[in-house]
Amino acid sequence: MKLISFVIPCYRSSQTICSVVSEISSLFSKNYKNKYDYEIILVNDASPDDTLDKIKEICHINKKVKGINLAKNFGQHSALMAGFRFITGEYVVCLDDDGQTPANQVFELINAIEEGYDVVYAQYQEKRHSLFRNIGSRINDFMARILINKPKELYLSSYFACRAYVIKEMIKYDNAYPYMMGLVLRTTINITNVKVVHRERINGESGYTLKSLLALWLNGFTNFSVKPLRIASLVGAILFIISMVFSIVLFLRKIFEPTIQMGYTSIMLTMILFGSIQLLSIGLLGEYIGRIFICINKSPQYVIKEVINSEEVIENDEIRKAI
User: Fold this and answer.
1) pTM to 2 decimal places
2) Contacts (Cβ under 8 Å, ≥6 apart) of 136
3) Residue 9 pairs with which residues in a beta bridge?
4) Per its UniProt entry, which superkingdom is the organism in (predicted)?
């Protein structure tokens, strides 16, 4: 019997997580109990509501559920990395805590894994996110194609299934800024999509804000690619050539027509343009250097405060020894 590990990061999901877990457990008890078994790993990302209490209740009722409580909010991708440390299944499934990712279609992903793929991403026929999230997803997809070489036809989402070896390779990454897309794409290219339905949210709103989306993009595009630096260098080289040509033109005009007054406006605009490009490039370089500094200082991906596994509660020191 094959074991499937479900990893679910939880944040402000006290109203939804019970129904998500119930859907998974009922799916196995009705249709697949003779072929597959499951475990669920719920990671509380320091949610300010009573999500942790709900997780403890679920763990007490269902012994196949493990709860992980992080010491502070580290973000969705760090929460996933924390959950990955505790998987024991042959296959791993990651999905959201809000009920929008259809757990009842998980075996469409698993079937594709058993056909030979290493990673299978759910592709939504119609996304039920807000306009803001949809625009952000499109920008993220475009940037991923340019900066981390994501295949154009590949659709990436937070709902995916993979083989355990992929996860074991991913958790070797100990940088403070994990990025799921980058970690998956550098581990394997044997990836496909399966179309599923994207549901309406059961309750509440998305935890992603513009600030958190920008932070996520920075994680991916500065930790897994040097292309931003190369683009900055290319832009600098192009502008240098343009400025040289412009300077030669102005110099020749001044020689052949000494009475021409040099344009104050054009000079100021040129200075502002070059100054802006320089500041942008310095800022980008500073972002890379800052992240190197943080990595050297061993900033953690996550800090586990406790692990709840039915009646068992493991405190910090025991967790560190186990890991």
Assistant:
1) 0.77
2) 208, 210, 213
3) 43
4) Bacteria
